[in-house]
Amino acid sequence: MEPGENPNAYLIEQIRAGSQAAWKELIDSYSGRLLAFARARTSSLADAEDLVQETFIGFLQSATHFDPTRSLETYLFTILRYKLYDLLRSKKMKMVSEPADSEDWWDRIVPGTEETPSGIAVQAEATGEQAKLLSEVLRELIHDMRDRQAFTDLQVIELLFFGGRRNIEIGELLEIDQKAVAGIKFRAIQKLQKFLANRDVSDLSCLDESQADITVARVWREQRLTCLKRSTLGSLSLGVLDEPWKSYTQFHLDVVACPMCVANLADIDDEEEERTDADTERMFQSSVGFLKKSTMN
Ligand SMILES: [Zn+2]
Question: Rounded to an integer, what distance in angstroms lies between the CA atom of residue 241 and that of residue 16?
Fold first, then answer.
């Protein structure tokens, strides 16, 4: 199961039908990683917990818009990020734990209105077909690079499209020539165009010179094409992940600094401390009223 895929379609169906048990299960599964994400970005634990509670409520309020073929985890992180931005704006605060070198692209980019939960749903409908095709060919490209163990190529395009880095930064991070970066990008786009042509797609507008960067980056981030499986992060945490995957996993966490995978790993590392049932219960009690409302819509 890839992180971009959603194993929770059935769970969401039950939640929409008003099942409290299903709602509790969702909170139990996701509160740890959401809390880890929020705690890294707020000054107090109370603020972080409030944000996660609001995220769950926000999910219920928008549950009718949620497309269950999309990743539930990514959707929840997106709502949380939006709530976080609201909180910081209302307090006129800056990110508390802003990484010194602003490694974290999610903290560098202000969420747009299109990233509100209902905005996402509308956008998904408008570009669904094209985005689906593009994610297919991107997966093909990524698998091809992994199979050939062309890790430098993969790291370059991951930093470019997922990490939002410029050529010059990538050159410095990977200690390669800027021209080599540009060459890898050029060949990657060519390959994507070839993959699309193989599928008899004649309209390549999503890979137009002017559009490619934005479109590819959006699809890559939405689908989290190179994000790590929870089981892979678990293996890393236990110290049983073999090379070259260990280095590649570490790259996604340390160099790309993917905020969602970093939060997942923190959650896994914390699991031994065990969150109390009281935490889950509190999140449940604060949001369960919205469960009834959302199912009446
Ligand atoms: Zn990730």
Answer: 38
Residue 258 CA to ligand 1 center (angstroms) comes to 5
Q: How far apart are CA 275 and CA 267, in angstroms?
A: 10
CA distances 19 to 31, 32, 223, 282, 291, Å, are 18, 21, 28, 17, 8
pLDDT in tens, 204-240: 666 666 666 777 888 888 888 999 999 999 999 999 9
Q: Which of left, alpha, beta for 57 (phi over 0: left; psi -120 to 50: alpha)? A: alpha
DSSP 160: I
Q: Whole-angstrom Cα distance, residue 64 to residue 295?
A: 8
With DSSP H G I counted as helix, E B as strand and the rest as coil, what are the percentages for the chain, rounded to 5?
Answer: 70, 0, 30
Please say whether the beta carbons of 6 and 284 come within 8 A: no
249 Cα–ligand 1 center, Å: 9
Rg (CA), the chain: 20
135 Cα: distance to centroid of ligand 1 (angstroms) = 16
pTM: 0.79
Q: Is the domain 126-225 a CATH 3.30.70 member?
A: no
Q: Where are the domains of the chain?
A: 126-225
- What is the CA(231)–ligand 1 centre distance, in A? 13
Cα 51 to middle of ligand 1, angstroms: 21
**15 contacts 63 by C-beta, under 8 angstroms:** yes
Query: Tens of pLDDT along 24-74?
Result: 999 999 999 999 999 988 888 999 999 999 999 999 988 887 888 778 898
